[in-house]
Amino acid sequence: MDDTMTEKDRERTVFTILIAISFAHMLNDMMQSVIPSIYPLIKEKYGFTFGQIGVITFVFQMTSSILQPLVGRYADRHPQPFSLSVGMLFTLAGILLLSFADSFTLIALSVSVIGLGSSIFHPESSRMAQMAAGRRKGLAQSIFQVGGNGGSAIGPLLAAVVVIPLGQHAIAWFAIAALVASATLFKVGQWYRGVLVHRTKRQIVVNPAVAALSRHAVHKALFLLCVLTFSKYFFMASMTSYFTFFLIDRFGVDIQVSQLCLFGFLGAVALGTVVGGGFGDRYGRKRVIWVSILGAAPFALLLPYVGFYATIGLAVIVGFVISSAFSAILVYATELKPGNVGMVAGIFFGLNFGLGGIGSAFFGWLADRTSIEFVFQISTLLPLLGIFTGFLPDIEPSRRKA
Q: pTM score, two decimals?
């Protein structure tokens, strides 16, 4: 009787939990996105150099990316139902410290604490999302991921409305978001504790097609997924950081118009994130990766060479198409390593943060030495790396037959 109930629970998608985790993801990434939004403020206030700003970014990126696989690995072996709620308190402490930090050292320390909170949040929350997914793992990851996309978009807007006019101390208001997120995740932790009691004996389900792969084949597939993640997030770094500069430089539009165009691109990214997860569940993760990355290439390649309205239209199409890749990549990767969902999620979320930061810095360096137009001509070649999807093993037909 208990085993039957456990099986039914495994098949059922718990949308209330997924929405709660996505909401917490939105609040977490909203608070994170405040950090780069206040760079002009603290640079002017404390006389920081661009080098010091770069170090602050580096400290945040490293603490929020490198630690994630380690946190995920620990969570796989020692699940802690309330770790997310406690982890959000690190973000709370970092936000409060940042609001009153008056030196380079204290600011670097505060962003490292925020980064630590992010490292605790992402791998374990992704693991919880999979446990609440039932059969709809792709949709579950998309719901979870779209919360982060929304938070990243909202954060700079709130910083512009609250922090820039009122000053650095106004960052403390974002502590309310950390408290709300911690309370939400406490409720999720109560559900998670109950799930662990019933699923301990049957938690790991191995796909027979994956079990038939050699260790070398699994590692090769994971490497290919990292290459595909690189192609997506380097391209996304170019778009999110320099698309506005490209529009201003090439078409002479003003800053407001360029920001609206960027918002259109990011809106398409959010929509594509949700749609892609459901498509992956229905048609297969590998197919979605094919379409998402390589399928975006023809539209991306045209971006640097067409007129203004065509550029905006193509940007929206590319944003929608390419954004579905991450959920499919992450679910595919966790199926390759079913007993290490937290660690795998930590690796790929860490890659997101790390590659995004490296890509932005690289394209900025390249733009200084060439031009924004050249940066776009180079970056739009990246989706062609989607061709490596063809070397991924076919693991889903066996899963569907099972």
A: 0.71
